[in-house]
Amino acid sequence: QVQLMESGGGKVQPGGSLSLSCVYDETIFTPYRLAWYRQTPGNQREFVADIMSDGPRNYANFVKGRFTVSRDRAKSTLYLQMNGLKPEDTATYYCNGVFVDSKGKSATYWGQGTQVTVSY
């Protein structure tokens, strides 16, 4: 079992910035892919950004140029820097990870989510 714990959500005005963090436990399992998703009430969870173990990053079109995903291996922490926030970015943001054990078996884990609200 891998624990993922998000933090950093809150309320910000349009055009503002927030930084989300996700601390994960990689004592036994190695992260292969780490990602951020978001969800609004009544809608499916949607992909925001991810970073692979060997470095490549991917972004949803609606956040390109505004959000940056990064990872601090020493701190076992995933980040999402969000700039130029818009009201439509309001959602619960979830940390997601695909982890691999010593036998090569992979499993997907989710954090509990952190709320981001963009409004005046």
Helix and strand sequence: EEEEEEEEEEE
What portion of the residues fall into strands of 2 or more residues? over 45%
Q: Regions with pLDDT < 50 over 5+ consecutive residues? A: none
Radius of gyration from CA coordinates: 14 Å
Structural class: mainly beta
- What is the first-to-last residue Cα distance? 40 Å
User: How would a textbook summarize the main sheet?
Assistant: 7 strands, mixed
Explain this structure to me?
This protein is mainly beta. The chain is built from no helices and eleven strands. The chain has strands at 4-7, 10-12, 18-24, 30-39, 46-52, 57-59, 67-72, 77-82, 91-100, 106-110, 114-118. The strands form two sheets. Strands 2, 4, 5, 6, 9, 10 and 11 form a seven-stranded mixed beta sheet that branches. It has a four-stranded antiparallel beta sheet with strand order 1-3-8-7, with no helix packed on it. A hairpin with a 5-residue loop joins strand 9 (91-100) and strand 10. It starts with a strand and ends with a strand. The mean pLDDT is 95.
